[in-house]
Amino acid sequence: MIEMKRLFTFATITLCVLFSACTSTPENVTHIHQLPPIFPDYTDVTIPVGIAPLNFNVMGEVECVDVVVRGSKEGELHANGTWADFDIDEWHELVSANRGGKLTVTVCAKIDGKWLGYNDFDIHVSNYELDEWGLTYRRIAPGYEVYSQMGIYQRELSTFDEYTIIDNSEVNGMCVNCHTSNRTHPDQFVFHVRGEHGATMVQQHGQREWLKAKNETLGGSMVYPYWHPSGKYCAFSTNQTRQGFHVTDQNRIEVFDVSSDVFVYHPATHEIISDSLLSTKEWSENCPVFSPDGKKLYFITCFQQSYPLHYKDEQYNLCSIDFNPDAVLAGTTVLPGGIFGQKVDTLFNAVAMGKSLTWPKPSYDGRFLMFTLSDYGYFSIWHRESDQWLLDLTTGEARPVDEINSDEADSYHNWSENSRWIVFTSRRTNGLYSQLFLASIDENGKATKPFLLPQENPLKYYDETLFSFNTPDFTKERVNFEKSAAYREIISDKRTDTKLE
After folding, report:
1. Alpha carbon distances (Å) from 83 to 16, 55, 80, 100, 232
2. What is the pLDDT of residues 277-299, one digit of tens each?
3. Beta bridge pairs of residue 227
4. Cα distance between residue 323 and residue 230, in whole Å
5. Is the pTM here over 0.85, yes or no?
6. Phi, then psi, of 460 in degrees rounded to 5
7. Domains in the chain and their CATH numbers?
8. Alpha helices by DSSP H, 433-480
9. Three-state secondary structure along 72-91?
């Protein structure tokens, strides 16, 4: 009921915004000694040069909004209307001129014919570059029995422009997920298709292959991919996944695996490289990622439980195994010295804390590894207690990143190529929909206050979209993908076989 009231309030405010006009200038302003009630909360956030304007709405039955933004070094920007709608070119000019400084925002709102002025707030402009062109992510409707409308999209970070990479509008019943590029470079790109025309799509330098969705020897599909930095390998897990629903629990949904294993795929030979240490009956191995130097494979593992009865006992630790990227694959022989190490190391013992670890993602500079910690399981997007943690790979110390965590589910994340920015999902705005937030992390692992992905009219956009965002990643440039040809290839069911090394 609380969530429904929030949505109704958002809808009411949106209608007021749409059907009002504003061109007046503040006069006889009464000062209110509090911060303005804005959506999104952009007070005291840190942004990169080049980000789209941080437009915002003033909450309440507002007739008009007047905003002045002043740079600490130089420049000024003015917006007047039904919401703070900044000119894109003027915004970029002002932010660029104040790199390393701050923007001070003055907000006035006309309510019941009277102008109210609020306390100023600051937006900090980082010295850290965000060189990526944009983001990729999946948008999915909140339905669970059927795939409904969903797709993989890309968004330019400097504007509000969004483009479809692929969606299920042309292939009924298709689910697309697990899209991953190599260190934010989309010339190597992979995603998985579930449904009647299932497949794993691997695109390299403009050439696509559609792999058979399931290798019978593995007993499952190729999911949760992560590219080796050399581009010669891609790690996957193979999972037999089940889903359950709570009647009264606040977490609503549970996802668990009756089995899962980890392996490495070699695209040049279509070989699947497995190892007994990564494929065991007693343990579930999952979520593999390579270290930035390519010499280790990180993954999570838990002792196999009896599901669904003991789903709360499903708790994962973070482990690693050595990986030899210089091994030469020759038919079914791996030379020299084997491709995997001889033992598995535990890097973070979450089970000893009574917790479960998921979504390990190392920063590309090799300094940190971010993961999500929750009470149990690995599918944390519906776990309200899930938080982001940061492991220092040089010291072995880990801590919760309190600067970015909230009381709602904070989950899936990825790094920019220079390791100074992260994007992650959170349900903090309404507890229902996962949305995308960005934050900066410095060389010492200190994060800045996160900010919601900007939209042209944020209240209208987030109120009307009614989609959840997940599996976000940065992309160095716009993804080049021929979706019309891809639809034909999906329906054709022409697939490449994989073979177990």
Report:
1. 11, 8, 7, 27, 49
2. 999 988 999 999 999 999 999 99
3. 234
4. 13
5. yes
6. -65, -45
7. 2-125 (2.60.40), 134-492 (2.120.10.30)
8. 458-465
9. CCCCEEEEEECCECCCHHHH
